[in-house]
Amino acid sequence: MTRRFSFAPPLYALFLMIPIYWLIVMSVKTMAEINGAFTFYPRAPTLENFHFILNDASWFNGYVNATIYVTLNVAISITVAVPAAYAFSRYRFFGGRALFFGLLAFRMMAPAVLLVPFVQIFSDLQLIDTHIAVAIAHGFFNVPLAIWILEGFISSIPKEIDEIARIDGYGFPRFFVKVLLPLIAPGIAVASFFCFMFSWIETLLSNALTVVHAKPIGGIMSRAGNVLAADLPLFAAASVLGLIPGIILIAFMRKHLARGFSMGRVT
Amino acid sequence: MDTKEHSLAAYGFLAPALAVMALCAVVPMGFVAYYSVHDTFGGNIFIWVGLDWYRQVFASPEFFGALLRSLLFSAIVLAIEVPLGLYIALRLPTRGLMSSLYIILLAIPLLTPTIVVGYLWKALTITDAGLLDEAARWFGLDYNLNNTVVAWVTLVLMDIWHWTSLVVLLCFAGLRAIPGDYYRAARIDAAGKWAIFRFIQLPKLRLVLLIAILLRFMDSFMMYTEGYVITRGGPGVSTTFLSRQLVETATVEFNLGEAGAMSIIYFLIITGVSFALFRLIEPRRVS
After folding, report:
1. ipTM of this complex
2. Phi and psi for B46 in degrees, rounded to 5?
3. Chain-chain contact of B99 with A92 (C-beta, under 8 angstroms)
4. Which of A143, B82, B147, B157 sits 20 to 30 Å CA-CA off A162?
5. Interface contact flag, B28 A117, Cβ < 8 Å
6. Which residues 6+ apart lie within 8 Å of B266 measured at CB?
7. In chain A, what residues touch B28 (CB-CB under 8 Å)?
8. Cβ contact (<8 Å) for A221 and B14?
9. What percent of chain B is modeled with pLDDT above 90?
10. What share of residues in chain A are helix, strand, coil (percent, to 5)?
């Protein structure tokens, strides 16, 4: 259905972009300018803060570390969620329904609730300060979500496809990889997007489970925030850089996302 | 096909997911439950105390204060974000360059780390240098984060900024999935805009709305980082939410038992509310 022009979307987009604009402006200002007078745009823009972050190993590695554990988390979540979603979509089995809702109940847990046990468990496993620890910890909210999304996508594919593939002599693994995965590719894109998002933005657990080697940028920022008298331009610059991986992700996945979002997992 | 073989295969498909969930959800949750009925004096000595911690939590005005504030915060942001998100989704262009441009713009806040959201909004609130502060002055208002109402309005605005797009994107996806035949049929019946919304779009959006409401309820109820960066829980305790109180009890006071009991009570509340929402919106799926 085509729609007539409406003012609501541009106004809403403006509301979203104003803080982003402000963040970018702050990141190129000097502390003196911020303390001086209120200015809508930087009088003497400087890239000093970006220069500092990109040349300081601990700040720069903060982005690398976050990217590593988020990627690991997406890989783990999607890999285990696809077969599980297939089971929920295609089979009736004892305890299936209870299990489906049980998994969702764990999605409802908050990071704050699981903070202490995670620290204890990963200490016992000697996995504190590793990327894999954060990647696994973030599984409690991403695995159920990925299963939930993918179950909808698989259910929207007629069951006859499975049988036709079998009649054509496809073994199950071949059917799974050659037929099913391509068909649900947009669903995998949508699920990966949500897993990336929730893992990328989480700061409480990722900060608590890391010390130096796997410290994400959020942890570096909160540590610096506790020590320094807030150096706002520096934080703004770090925040601007923190937006970039997300923007790259959307730009790359735009087509898949648009298709996935319109594929009708939802009715 | 033999159904029994099927059901065994299903468990095989589920095994990897269940193994991961055991490690990152079931076992830690077991720890929490264990803490909640034991007391510890350091080391690894735990003493069974039954329901003592639960009694202590239920007798604690701080807990009920934080609980009420969290519930109020969730209620406010849901009441704004769900209708607003649905409205924007109905108005978004459905095809062409503008459509994908909007999807990218809308997704940016969603991909902003919580701590960045915190610092971003903090930057907006600084006296004499923040945009909110300046805008308030322009309207002749006094912007002061030490005022409870101002602190709440700031946090609610921040949450709307951060999360309304999630509702928009989910509803947009749901709307795109409605077959064109429905609209053609409606046109033949000369249905008005409201009738199309009420009898076609809204019913078709039930499940997406349910997903959106549940995700927003769970996450706003336990908001932690962003709010704390801006208000540090104040003025006083007026923006100290459940999550903050929980972490403080567990890691500052190091009172694992009380934190455990709070966690279990929190878990029961959130599953209860979520289940009720489920029943309300999608009665068919539950039975």
Report:
1. 0.86
2. -115, 135
3. no
4. A143
5. yes
6. A110, A113, B222, B242, B246
7. 114, 117-118, 121, 140
8. no
9. 20
10. 75, 0, 25
